Amino acid sequence: MSAEPRINDRIRVPEVRLVGPSGEQVGIVPLAKALELAQEYDLDLVEVAATARPPVCKLMDYGKFKYESAMKAREARKNQAHTVIKEMKLRPKIDPHDYDTKKGHVVRFLKQGDKVKITIMFRGREQSRPELGFRLLQRLADDVADLGFVESNPKQDGRNMIMVLGPHKKKTEAMAEAREAQAARKAGRQPESSAIEEPAEEPAEA
C-alpha cells in the first residue's frame, strides 16, 4: 500500500489500541490520552493497523522511521539482481574452434549468473537432420554441467532448435564474488580460488 499512515491529529477515532515506543502493549486508550503520551515522549502517534477495531497506533519517531524505511528499500533495490537471458547461436555442423569459442561465452554468462538461450540454426537440407542439433545441444549441456543446468529442454521452433540453460549460481552470488575478486585485485593479491598450488612431488595414483 503506497498511502502513508495517518499520524497525530490526522487520526480521527475515539480510541486506539496503543503500542509503546519499545513495542510494549499499552492497551485500548482514548485518542486524547494517546496524543498526550506522544507529546510526553516527544514522539508521533502513528496508525499502523487502520482496519483493526479499534485501530492500532504506535508511539514512534515517524521522521526517523520513514528515513530508515527509505534506506532499507534503497539497499534492497541495490542488491536486487535482474534476471538476464543471453543468447548464443550455433550451426549444427560447427567446427571445433568455433564451438570452443561459443562454449567459452556460455561459460562466462553462466559464471555471471545469467541464463543462456542456445539457438541451433538449420539451413537447407540441415532441417531434415534435427538430431544433429539435439546432439550438439546435449554436448554443450554436458560440457557446462558444473556451471549450469538445462532449464528448458531442446525444442524445435521453425528452422531453429532452442534450449535454455540456467546457472547453478544465483545472480546475487555471482555479483558478490565478482566484487570480492575485484577487491582482491586492488589489494594486490590473488583470490584464494586462483592461487597456484605447488606441484606434488609424486604423481597421484589413478
Please, could you describe this protein's structure?
Strand 3 and strand 4 form a beta hairpin. With 206 residues, the chain is of the alpha/beta class. The strands form two sheets. It has a four-stranded mixed sheet. A four-stranded mixed sheet has the order 5-6-8-7, covered by helices on one side. It has five helices and eight strands; from the N terminus they run E-E-H-E-E-H-E-H-E-H-E-E-H. Helices cover 36% and strands 26% of the residues.
Looking at this protein, list some descriptive labels.
single chain, four-stranded mixed sheet, 206 residues, disordered C terminus, alpha/beta
Q: Count the beta strands.
A: 8
Secondary-structure element string: EEHEEHEHEHEEH
| General shape | elongated
Overall mean confidence score, pLDDT: 85
What value does the Rg take, in angstroms?
A: 30 Å
Strand content: 25-35%
Structural class: alpha/beta
Beginning-to-end CA distance, first to last residue:
63 Å
Task: Give helix % range.
Answer: 25-40%
Strands ordered across the widest β-sheet: 2-1-4-3
Largest sheet: 4 strands, mixed
Number of helices: 5
- Note poorly predicted spans: 191-206
